């Protein structure tokens, strides 16, 4: 990136661009080509303030319920199939606060189903600490499983994520079918969850290859200017594959257009339900 910036500083075509937003787009294209990382972006944002994440305020239970209902869709489909569409994966702190709401509004409804579909097709954000929460609901309490390792460059620290021995409410278990729907817009934390459950052989991924984002992005101010570089500052390495889903994305087990993924998932679950009867008839 330093080499790219040095080259750009003497490029008369770039220096002659007077519109700052256009310049930001040109710089973005140049940096992406130089380092082969589509996640890096240069933006022009006058007045932007890099803010620390504030502590979570106390929120009344009824407001928490409204917030959860706004980001999660729950349905029981024909054939006793649970459908859970998530737009944002909450972290540990939020999970502790909204636990009773999660149980009443979501989990108690979906737990008795015979199969589940997790819809991550429009899941664009999430918290790192939410990964072991979701994965653990679809694994056994023992033995504990090493889910993921995340190297955080800003802290020069590798964080190991493990399955959790105790959870709020009952686990969905390991025997019932679990299908995750993905699209080219599935981004970040949801990609990690899908990749973990896929390689644990616990979930079938149906849909499109995911965006290939990252678990953590930072926005860095460029000198004394109003330009910022958004860059990944952490890397996920799966302990099973020894690889990362970042940049390349999570490849589906069943590749179908995202708009057809739900119908395909339902068909797969229905077929799986028929297998014991078909096997018995064949015998």
From TrEMBL:
- Please give the Pfam families that the UniProt record associates with this protein: Peptidase_S41, Peptidase_S41_N
Which residue positions does the secretion signal occupy?
Answer: none
Q: Does the keyword Hydrolase apply?
A: no
Tell me the SMART domains matching this sequence.
TSPc (SM00245)
Its name, as the record gives it, is Interphotoreceptor retinoid-binding protein 2
For the biological process aspect of GO, one term held by this record is: proteolysis
Q: Which gene encodes it?
A: IRBP2
Q: What is the species listed in this Swiss-Prot or TrEMBL entry?
A: Microrasbora rubescens
The alphabetized UniProt keywords are: Receptor
Domain Tail specific protease, chain residue ranges per copy: 60-257
Molecular function (GO) terms for this protein are: retinol binding; serine-type peptidase activity
Q: Which Gene3D superfamilies match?
A: 2-enoyl-CoA Hydratase, Chain A, domain 1 (3.90.226.10), 3.30.750.44
